[in-house]
Structure prediction request, 310 residues.
Amino acid sequence: MEEKENKIKDTEDHLSEKTPASIEVVGVKFKSAGKTYYFSPEGIRFSINDKVIVRTARGIELGFVSQENKTVFENEVVSPLCPVLRPASVEDIQRWESNKQLEKNAFETCVKLIAKHKLAMKLIEAEYTFDNSKLLFYFSADGRVDFRDLVKDLASVFHTRIELRQIGIRDEAKMMGGLGVCGRPFCCSTFLSDFAQVSIKMAKEQNLSLNSTKISGACGRLMCCLRFENETYAAELRATPPVDSKVKTPDGVGYVTEISPLTGMCKVIMHEKGTDVVRSYHRDKLTVLGKRISDERNDRKENKSEENIK
Prediction:
């Protein structure tokens, strides 16, 4: 009996070691298209868009609840969690709004001082922390900028801690906002919290023009929306016979000349009665037999060259 009890106890201890503890969190954003950060609600129940006062690495900040109270495993969040200090009061909201006006004045002052020091930098945004303990200026520039004298002048004007941060061209577009070629506001400034990697391969798979002016956003980089449908296009391409593949059709054998992955339609060229005829078939009616002879020869040449290199 004692051995059984010991085994049961060991099993319970083993399971408790494997299962991480759960904690209650609340998600908070500081900008509409910013990241969601998790805080400890300290027993208070919050709703979406509630304004809260929290302590962050930058100091005391006012944020907006983006995710209501929920329970997660402790290993899913970065510990220790900072607490939500309190729901924002009327005075807190008034102070936050007054800071917005102060930021506009700080921006104008900084632009004048940049011109005074003749610095090759573009000011993007000025931002006060909630408690006014720090004033941050975000700027973009082609290279490194020596802004030490500028910081001294800013500190003498605003009498607070000054911090200048250089940002990339995509972050600049996110902060400034605007309209894309689709006529809608930038994805990055409305709902994208992170910049995901976008490659030219995504444009190729979607059969888009590789003209950089047509597939680039206002920031000059590849449009973020190329990634939205990429998984769908990739899956459809895998299910569709590639161009130049040899296929068997209900009317005979031919070669694929053009494909439309989303509709599943393929154009196949076949040699009939001394002439080439092009017909359209759905991919479900095609059976891939191989590649063109010329393609197979090229593949063999590439394989031989690779072997020689090895």
